[in-house]
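Inverse folding, one chain.
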């Protein structure tokens, strides 16, 4: 084995790190007083038969190995016993000791072996850490770390990790080469159960490592606010494997009478290196995440569901939309539509997670519509026409009220436009009658996450679902756009004008390829471009008045964009962990972080 490893390293075909046994061997070869145990006697005997020259080569080779390897630009760290983040890329006696022996408590167990502190449970670093030292039956990912020592010498298996695919490959040992002092145990035997949560996972200041946007910090006050919502109002965390991110608007337009315009979104994506986008109709409803299982057995085995429960339909903050009966009625129809569309078989899926919009807006926001929008509209329609009538009579009597009359007439017209805007998003519902679900993305299944599938793929599936149950499910109108073609972008602007001119909220512009990294990192997954009339609901009936519009153009978008990217990356991370079968507390960590970031002080109108 030594000849093989030394030869591969010497030829440049492999890299190696030292372990505690290599360190002990070097000390023994140098005449130090070491305890000859754990196979050292056999190694020394075999080396003596090889001669002094080879023995000296072994000594120099083992002594010259660095404590750990930092690879792939800091994304991968390899150390014999693992390594805490603060030691990555550093050299000292303490770092080398940790890399060789791990983190021990100073105590010994009933087998006389050191009691090891589970450092991986506290690891929150960006780099993946691959290590060995402590043999286990089955490798298990813990906080982006994995132990690949599966006890080959003890008759177990020899395991390798393919990077960056995160795939494990193993072969069985020919036989038991050495009797273990301590029986091998499954990796998770001494840790919490897969469905067990701990308050300390989410309280205080937290740093969540994500695959696509580095480390994301959650402040203590943000975590406290999220804990209040999660514990009082949200679904059981076992269903919350994902929360959707907020979305930033396009850059502010300088065009007269426009605060948002498609050209600004197109310009922003060109600047990020994106040449093809898709414009999707923005449904004026409530963001809805639908987790539907193929049957009750899957729901029970995968999510620990109670009898009769086959999934969940929930809001951006993890709250249920409907009572249990209506939820199951909706899930049954989505499940049947997926079956008729051939989706279960095509994806070989046991469960599906869909992102979409639940319509109408009034189905979830009835009180908001009545108390905020309808009240404003009713008050304005009651007061302003009467004011116009009074001012008209005053003008007829020769009073100089022309300017005031013109302003009041304009305000009355604005109030009528405001009322028309919100009425388009309200219609009566009875149970599921009148309710519509518009899915626009297949987020994940038990087989995979689908963030690398282009939006054309996702929207085609949405069309198939809508065709399978047109009374409940809706497709999404869209238009692909080539940003390098002026005719294509002009057609998209016309499409948006027609969409918003007939009562539509607006559109969302997304990179056609879906998940995109540009020169400056992760690219915004979507930019909303809302219509002139819809924005009356956001900024008030009179927002288009010149003085108001000039003031609103000073809105600051940087914080909103940053928040959208961080929440997007956290959502991708929770999906990655869920699909990989990681424990609930690991999946819940980025989900909780999304909810925590929602308490950040950002203009809610954006």
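Residues assigned per position:
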């Amino acid at each position: 084995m030594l000849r093989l490893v030394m030869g591969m390293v010497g030829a440049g075909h492999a890299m190696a790190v030292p372990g505690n046994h290599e360190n002990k061997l070097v000390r023994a070869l140098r005449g130090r007083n070491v305890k000859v145990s754990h196979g050292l006697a056999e190694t020394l005997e075999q080396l003596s038969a090889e001669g002094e020259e080879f023995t000296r080569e072994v000594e120099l080779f083992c002594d010259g190995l660095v404590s750990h390897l930092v690879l792939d630009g800091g994304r991968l760290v390899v150390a014999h016993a693992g390594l805490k983040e603060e030691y990555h890329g550093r050299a000292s006696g303490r770092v080398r000791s940790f890399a060789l022996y791990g983190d021990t408590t100073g105590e010994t167990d009933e087998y006389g072996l050191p009691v090891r502190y589970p450092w991986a449970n506290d690891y929150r670093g960006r780099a993946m850490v691959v290590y060995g030292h402590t043999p286990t039956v089955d490798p298990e990912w813990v906080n982006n770390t994995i132990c690949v020592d599966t006890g080959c010498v003890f008759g177990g298996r020899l395991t390798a990790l393919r990077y960056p695919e995160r795939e494990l490959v193993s072969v069985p040992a020919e036989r038991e080469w050495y009797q273990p002092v301590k029986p091998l145990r499954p990796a998770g035997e001494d840790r919490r159960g897969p469905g067990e949560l701990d308050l300390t996972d989410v309280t205080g200041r937290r740093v969540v490592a994500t695959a696509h946007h580095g480390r994301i910090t959650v402040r203590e006050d943000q975590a406290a606010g999220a804990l209040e919502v999660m514990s009082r109002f949200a679904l059981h965390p076992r269903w919350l494997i994902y929360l959707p991110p907020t979305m930033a608007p396009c850059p502010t337009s300088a065009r007269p009478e426009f605060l948002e315009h498609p050209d600004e979104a197109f310009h922003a994506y060109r600047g990020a290196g994106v040449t093809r986008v898709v414009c999707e109709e923005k449904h004026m409803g409530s963001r809805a995440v639908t987790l539907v299982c193929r049957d009750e057995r899957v729901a029970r085995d995968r999510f620990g569901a109670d009898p009769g429960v086959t999934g969940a339909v929930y809001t951006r903050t993890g709250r249920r939309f409907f009572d249990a009966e209506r939820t199951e009625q909706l899930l049954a129809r989505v499940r049947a539509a997926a079956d008729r569309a051939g989706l279960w078989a095509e994806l070989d899926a046991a469960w599906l997670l869909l992102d979409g919009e639940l319509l109408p807006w009034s189905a979830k926001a009835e009180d908001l519509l009545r108390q905020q929008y309808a009240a404003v509209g009713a008050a304005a329609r009651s007061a302003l026409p009467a004011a116009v009538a009074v001012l008209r009579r005053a003008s007829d009597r020769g009073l100089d009220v022309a300017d005031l009359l013109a302003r009041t007439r304009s305000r009355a017209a604005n109030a009528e436009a405001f009322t028309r805007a919100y009425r388009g998003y309200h219609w009566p519902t009875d149970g599921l009658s009148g309710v519509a679900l518009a899915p626009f993305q297949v987020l994940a299944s038990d087989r995979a996450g689908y963030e690398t599938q282009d939006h054309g793929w996702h929207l085609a599936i949405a069309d198939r679902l809508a065709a399978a149950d047109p009374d409940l499910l809706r497709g999404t109108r869209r238009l692909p756009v080539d940003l390098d073609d002026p005719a294509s972008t002009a057609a998209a602007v016309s499409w948006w004008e027609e969409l918003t001119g007939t009562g539509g909220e607006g559109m969302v512009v997304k990179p056609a390829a879906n998940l995109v990294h540009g020169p400056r990192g992760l690219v915004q997954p979507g930019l909303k471009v809302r219509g002139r009339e819809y924005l009356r609901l956001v900024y008030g009936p009179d927002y288009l008045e010149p003085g108001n519009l000039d003031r609103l153009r000073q809105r600051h978008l940087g914080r909103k964009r940053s928040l959208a990217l961080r929440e997007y990356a956290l959502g991708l991370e929770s999906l990655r962990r869920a699909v990989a079968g990681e424990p609930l507390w690991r999946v819940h960590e980025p989900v909780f972080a999304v909810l925590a970031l929602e308490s950040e002080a950002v203009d809610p109108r954006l």
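The first helix runs from residue 2 to 10. The chain has a mean pLDDT of 91.
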